[in-house]
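Notes, Module 5: Reading structure tokens.

Key idea: the token line is not a picture. It is a compressed description, and you learn to read it the same way you learned to read a sequence, by spotting repeated patterns. We will look at two proteins. The first is printed below with its tokens.
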Amino acid sequence: MKANGVVLRKLSVIEQVVRELRSLGHVRVSQLEEDWRTRRAVERSLQVAVEAVIDVCQRIISVQDLTPAATGRESIARCVEIGALSSETPYRRMVQFRNFIVHRYEQVDAAILADIVNRRLDDFERFIREIRAYVSRD
């Protein structure tokens, strides 16, 4: 698949969000509970990154002339099927988190946010690598 401008822009968004979140250093649960600004920044940043992941998958599906995916989770599964992604697991968790933060935003556990920032940002970087490799194929 030839690199697509929309895909590349969305990957840049994810890279920027990951850089910004990493700049926070190790995030403590107490820090997120006590500092609403940091908490909101983390919540919004993670939501934006996951939305970009879903958008990238949907764009790849569209460019491949496949039937559009009805859900974010389905778009991830389709990208695994066509070989753009190697596994659904980390990305399915992203979509689940996004759904939770959008629909149950008043109950997002600070421990979950801290865990994602401290231990799961590599999943976003893996996504970027896999998609870049896929779009660079001839």
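Here is the second protein, with the sequence above and the tokens below, as before.
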Amino acid sequence: MKYNNKKLTIENINFQVLAKKFGTPAYCYSYSKLSDNINSFKENFKSFSPLICFSIKSNTNVNIIREIKKFGLGADVVSKGELMLALKAGVNPNKIVFSGVGKTNEEINFAIKKKILLINAESKSEIQEINNIAKRKKKIVQVGIRLNPNTDAKTLKQISTGKSENKFGVNSKTFYELVKYCKNSKNVSLQCLSVHIGSQILDHKPYERMLKAVSNIMSKTKHKFKFVDLGGGMGISYSNKNKKLNYKKYNSAIKNFLKKHNTKIIFEPGRSIIGNTGTLITKIIYIKDGGTKQFIILDSAMNDLMRPALYGAVHKILPVIKSNNISRNTYEFVGPICESTDKFVTLKKFQKLKEKDFLAICDVGAYGMSLSSNYNLRPKPVELLVKGRKIKIIKNRQKLTELI
């Protein structure tokens, strides 16, 4: 995104044109940025050619996943629905990893039927369930065991997954027991050690601690793991205050790990691939005087973008038409939903706004539409993909008649 003659553009297409043609709120994705992100990710780790499985939960638009698949990526799924979506998008089953702490009997059966690469189990009960199903089907199922390395990712509490207090994975004692269980089973083949410590990680040091914990465990088990799934969690810059993850140092740590352990690395990136490709275009409905501040009431709300209400996350907001006229008021950008948490950000020294102006909420490609809902019976927004001069509707705006 950039300003051309004070007009905010995406791949040289004016956001105001998009807003007037397709209405608001509207999600808009840049193909160019998506392509850059994928190629950059591959370049950062090209020395050991990992299997990259895009995290479907970060963005569930089938047309986006079709584009991602064309770059040779697989998929990380956490439900039967996500697995069905990945297959519909044409993702190779041999590049699909099924994660999650609560896979049902139905989901495990479906994953086995579709012959996906790995089911990453997260408890003793789950491994036993997979084994029992595989036994009945007279199949040998490739599995991974997710280790909880008790590593603090130094990220938001709500998206931390690698500490002992979190529900994910198993501790080292249980991990050893499950390795032994798998060795004695004729129906599960233990292929992978899986680990994932959190999301929106901007420091390489937690990854280094994670790799050290994984290395120690692998050395003690003396089991030959074909894969080590390092998860994802690589963060993006949502504001100018965010530092960037040092991929060179993370790459170096993995290369040192691979000197000791001859295994194939799997990554499960989501946000780092899709996060900064998406923008939510919105319109100001009303400006309401609140005494100490002015409420900028938008036509987008927490049902369209849940992250600020759910995590206290902050997204940059940009005017679609730029001016040098700065307001003396404090602006609080809010939605129309009947919840006090339905707000995006409070800003000072923003340009002066008026009703019916268009705004762009930035970096919403990950956990934007995938976390959206119909709360207050609000239809979900239209989704657009901009590729050069071409604008494609990749999901139609919901109609109230479909909901009621």
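Summary for the second protein:
- The chain has a mean pLDDT of 94.
- The radius of gyration is 23 Å.
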